[in-house]
Amino acid sequence: MGVDDYIWAMPKVELHLHLEGSIRPEILLELADRHGVELPVKSLEDVQRWYIFRDFDHFVQIYINIVKVLLNPDDFSLITYDLGRTLAAQNVRYAEVTWTPSLHVNKPGMSFEHLLDGINHGLDLARQAFGIDMRWIPDIARNLDAKIAVKLAKWISSPYAQANGVVALGLGGQEVGYPPELFEDAFTLARQNGLPGNPHAGEMMGPESIWGSLRNLQAVRIGHGVRAIEDPELVDYLVEHQVPIEVNPTSNLCLGVYPNYGAHPIKTLFDAGVLVTLNSDDPPMFNTTINDEYYHAYYDCGLSLDELETIALNAVKVTYLPDHQKAKMLTQFEAEYRHLRRVHGLNER
Ligand SMILES: [Zn+2]
User: Fold this and answer.
1) What digits encode the pLDDT tens for the residues 246-280?
2) How far is the CA of 344 from the centre of ligand 1 (A)?
3) d(Cα 187, Cα 91) in Å, to the nearest integer?
4) How far is the CA of 347 from the centre of ligand 1 (A)?
5) Active-site positions?
6) pTM summary value
């Protein structure tokens, strides 16, 4: 069908994606094998079944097993390369990917620099093989890193990190019980070093978490941000200041934030003028892909093809790339959308 093929072929940018949460079951098995790590399940079919989201505790269990098999920089090269392949196959041209340094840098021979070098080696290979490019948003895990947040921010915003693809400081992990205010010092330090703040907020917690991220962390982009819908004043603020939000509908459904796609506020936020982007979060664990998110947005959330294009172009506009690169990518994407619409027999906007 024209629309499906068109959505698949659209060049895209993805802004909210976790490197560890993007590992495919095949790669998890390969790494477990490489290191002789026992997983709770053995065969590929069992891992595929085990991977699918059941509840938050199960999700955490999978993450713990993923962390167990990521032991050296080569492992990170492999998963980064594989992510590049998966994204390029869906016509993602560029991604800003989150990973959590504190889960890995406590292992032998793994400094923050080793980790970053391993990831960049995988990116180099993916760039050569698939033409995709990526940048990094290392994050502080709220529930794990509260005491070492400033130290982490120092690594993440170091000149070495920024010269090697790090473009923002993230804040992930458990939102409930760990408000943004706790991490103000870390985000201030990063900002003083020229690194913008890109926290998760407004997913498991309501508007106050987004307000705190804006006021105390000076957030430049908000991961999720969908629960802004609960506070009209906050929606007005996001619109007025064009603060981008990184929306992940399937992730929100899995975690019980909304009961179904029809109840998801993406369309209402978009209609209000919020700068919405569309993303996949931890795709294999939520049984989704970036293209599936576009399909759901179109078929289940009520966004038109024109609106999807606007959302896809929004992502380009709010990347952390230099302005001239964004402008070039925008021109390229717009030209391709026009061409693809003709090819697929769809009316031009
Ligand atoms: Zn996330």
Assistant:
1) 999 999 999 999 999 999 999 999 999 999 999 99
2) 33
3) 33
4) 35
5) 203
6) 0.97
